[in-house]
Every structure is written in structure tokens, then in C-alpha cells.
């Protein structure tokens, strides 16, 4: 698989959605209680920018109607600037609201690789790791590998999955002999993205 192409495609879906629960500065929301207050606090900066933008556009329209085209163009450009600032403030507010409301939610996704050949299983695992890097509400990936035909701890699939997990520095624990729980939050780059080094 061409992991670089996959990363570019996934990144295009996640534009502006990079939330960082672990190392986020305290959002504005923590100052108050109540959902409506939270919304008002976060959106107040954007609202001010939208109001300023409207005022500049109205002044530009008046200047244009008076024949002051250069002044109208200048006012319009200032309005565009405040429009951009308002959109950015809205996006920031959206992130802060999302982070505040979801910081204590720990979601787990389970994938069952049991019965897969090692190469295909590792490819599927890498794909899921990349996808969930860009989905901040997923913190854990439960990977069912099975125990292997040679008994607990000796299966090729589980050994290969553990090899990848350790190589990538992913925090993990063993739920049972055939299931691993991987902690995903915070990790953004994987070494396998640079090459095509699937096992076997």
C-alpha cells in the first residue's frame, strides 16, 4: 500500500478537525457552568468579528453609492479581513466546545483480525491506526488477534501486531490471550507512512 497517498487522503477529510485533548490549553469553557453560557462565551469573539464585518460592508456600500470607489474598495477589503477572522473564530469556538463536551468520553473501536493472513492483517491495522489518528473522539483500538494455532503467545499474527505496536511506540495492554487494547490519543505520525515495509 502507498501509505503516503492514504495519509494525504485522510488528512483532506480531517482538515480543521485536529483536536488535542491531552495537551490542550484550558479552553474558555472551564470558567463557567451551563451549556448555554459555554456557547455564548466561545462564540462571542466570532460574533464581534461578524458584526464588524457587516459594519464595514455597509460603509463600503454607502461609499460606493456616493461614487467613492477607492474608499469603498478599501472598506470592502477590511470587511473581508473581518469575515476571515470570524470564520477562524467560529472554527476555534467549535473545537473548544467539542473538546470541553467530549474530554471525559473514551471511545473504543474493535477490529477482529483473527483468521487474516499476517500481511493483510497488518495492512488493515495500519489503515485503522491512520484513520483514527484523525478522529479525535476515538482513544482506544481493541485488536482481536486470536491466540494462534501454536497456543497462547505463539501466534504469528499476534506477534506481528505486537511488533508493529512496539515499533510505533503505541501504548498497549493485553485484555486477554487473544486481544490487545491500543491507546491512540496523542500519536500523530507513524514510521510506516514513509515506506512500504509490510511483513512477508
From TrEMBL:
Residue ranges occupied by any Smr domain in the UniProt entry: 111-185
Gene3D superfamilies linked to this entry: 3.30.1370.110
Domain of life: Eukaryota
InterPro entries reported in the protein's UniProt record: At5g58720-like, DUF1771, Smr_dom, Smr_dom_sf
One Pfam family linked to the record: DUF1771
SMART domains: DUF1771 (SM01162), SMR (SM00463)
Protein name (database record): SMR domain-containing protein isoform X1
